[in-house]
Amino acid sequence: MSFPVYIHIGDWQLHPHVVFESLSYFIGFRVYLRTRTKGGVPTLVGLQILAGAMVGAAAGSKLLFWLEDPLTTYSHLAAGDWTAMLAGKTIVGGLLGGLIGVELAKRWAGWSSSTGDDFVLPLVVGMAIGRIGCFLTGLDDGTHGTPTSWPVGVDFGDGVPRHPAQLYEIAYLLAIGTALSALRRRIRRGDASLPAGAVFQLFMVAYLLFRFAIDFVKPTPHVYFGLNNIQLACAAGLIYYAGLMSRWLDPKKRGMRHAR
Questions:
Q1: Quick check: 128 and 31 in contact, CB under 8 A?
Q2: Which residues of 119-139 are buried (b: 16+ CB within 10 A; e: fewer)?
Q3: CA contacts within 13 A on the Cβ side of 112
Q4: Which residues pair with 8 in a beta bridge?
């Protein structure tokens, strides 16, 4: 297999990243419309929350990318190289930025109930589809792993077997998506006593833990005391969610449940 693996439709040759990123948004949104809690959030409030999520995700994704290598980012900024400044993005930054955007939009709309559980399955599906495009893009995407002697190593075109980090992530997303979807069905049937928002919190903790671990085999600069920008953001997110989850995991705090 040679990378990138272009998608051929008639006379068109489409880049895999563009194709699968587009599919991730389209299919993820369709999954949300199909699986969301009916009658839970008014249409106008839902649109405001969705807008907040999109703006926050775009800002967070870009900001965290700029922190990958601060010196390089500064050199691009000083040179006015906006093409380089606008080139990259990160899923973790998008998730955490989207979270902030949603909370601000909910406050502006005057909506206090949890909305996160409805987004878990769409996020899992969308992210998994997007990672297919990352894998098929190869080295140019920058989401591959470091060189490895493991049997699962993939040669992305330079003769060096590397960790297929994208495939690891797809498998992990499918596993946690299956588990959390089953848990959400149990909650809806009344078989599991968990507060609204708990499924989304569990998803975020599971994904942030995975990203913190997998980024040790990513070829990104680890300039923050042996960690990279993604791992720092994951640590901050895990601390935040530890505080939220302690309110319903601790029996003494069950009467003070509050989940976002």
A1: no
A2: bbbbbbbbbbbbbbbbbbbbe
A3: 1
A4: 13
SS (H, E, C) the chain: CCCCCCEEECCEEECHHHHHHHHHHHHHHHHHHHHCCCCCCCHHHHHHHHHHHHHHHHHHHHHHHHCCCHHHHHHHHHHCCHHHHCCCCCHHHHHHHHHHHHHHHHHHHCCCCCCHHHHHHHHHHHHHHHHHHHHHHHHHHCCCCCECCCCCCEECCCCCEECCHHHHHHHHHHHHHHHHHHHHHHHHHCCCCCCCCHHHHHHHHHHHHHHHHHHHHCCCCCCECCECHHHHHHHHHHHHHHHHHHHHHCHHHHHHCCCC
Could you tell me the two tokens for 135? 């894998």
Gyration radius (Cα) of the chain, Å: 19
184-239 tens-digit pLDDT: 999 888 887 888 889 999 999 999 999 999 999 999 999 999 999 999 999 999 99
Q: How many CB atoms lie within 10 A of CB 250?
A: 10
Both structure tokens of 115 = 């909305």
| Residue 90: other Cβ atoms inside 10 A | 24
Reading the block at residue 180, the tokens are 């959390």
pTM of structure: 0.91
Which residues, in sequence order, are CB contacts of 212 under 8 Å at separation 6+? 230, 231, 234, 235, 238
Q: What six digits make up the tokens of 223?
A: 């300039």
At 114, the amino acid letter reads S
**Rounded to whole angstroms, how far apart are CA atoms 134 and 167?**
9
